[in-house]
Write a structure and sequence with these properties.
258 residues, mainly alpha, 10 helices, elongated
């Protein structure tokens, strides 16, 4: 039975990762796959549907901003380039600036969410098969831990950081040979690596916190079972649990004497 569960988990994981790599950036097919194999619990289903909705909302913002900017057209840049940081900020009207920046914020959100999903699918496929609550970055959920808001805090912070870098760096779509960098170099050489490092650090931190929380919960459960059975080792486990959840200097001396 265990072998069957492991095989099913690997099958689901392979499928959702193929969807993530092939079509996930635009279509969010990998999240749709989590809705189908197997059907998730009700709470997970609501969250996945909301996740897909936010993805397509960001795509809509990206498409709307880009379409409006193309239909309006930009004022001529003094350096002859198609668009640059200085031309956008000093030679375009406020309406064009707003939609130009907003549509890049939409695609930045899509990219950051796509990377975060890739870091999470390994754990989500396991949790979906076991009908457990999905945790941030694929971590196992537990009491007081495993809130999805941590993942969205990471994604939102990444998007804010990417957007700040985008408009503070001197860039140009076709640099005239000066010190500007192209938009491709900006995205591929700076912004995309920043997203990966930022979200990877969040993923590692949350998984470490999750392992610590699960270990403390396991010790607590074992202590209660031994205490109910009258096992003398329960006192020793109680001290271990207190050490896991509190700094040694803050332990109650009465517990140690007991």
């Amino acid at each position: 039975m265990l072998r069957s569960l492991v095989g099913s988990e690997m099958c689901i994981r392979d499928r959702v990762y193929l969807l993530w790599v092939g079509f996930g950036f635009l279509s969010c097919f990998h999240m749709m796959g989590l809705l189908c194999c197997p059907p998730p619990a009700r709470g997970n289903r609501r969250w996945i549907v909301g996740h897909i909705g936010i993805h397509f909302l960001a795509l809509f913002v990206f498409a709307l901003g880009g379409g409006l900017c193309r239909s309006w057209g930009a004022d001529d840049c003094p350096g002859g380039e198609t668009m640059s940081q200085s031309c956008l900020m000093h030679h375009q009207d406020s309406r064009y600036q707003f939609f130009y920046i907003t549509h890049y914020m939409g695609v930045a959100w899509v990219a950051a969410q796509w990377i975060a999903d890739g870091l999470s699918l390994w754990g989500w496929s396991r949790a979906g098969l076991a009908q457990e609550q999905l945790g941030p970055f694929g971590s196992l959920s537990g009491p007081g831990f495993g809130r999805m808001m941590w993942q969205y805090a990471a994604v939102g912070s990444c998007v804010a950081l990417v957007t700040t870098l985008l408009w503070s760096i001197k860039w140009s779509t076709d640099p005239p040979g000066g010190g500007d960098i192209t938009g491709t170099e900006l995205v591929g050489g700076i912004l995309f690596p920043v997203m990966i490092v930022w979200l990877g650090s969040w993923c590692l931190a949350i998984r470490c916190l999750g392992c610590r929380a699960r270990k403390a919960a396991h010790l607590q459960c074992k202590t209660e079972e031994n205490a109910a059975a009258g096992d003398p080792a329960a006192d020793f486990l109680a001290i271990q649990v207190a050490t896991q959840t509190n700094p040694p200097e803050k332990l109650d001396s009465s517990k140690l004497e007991h």
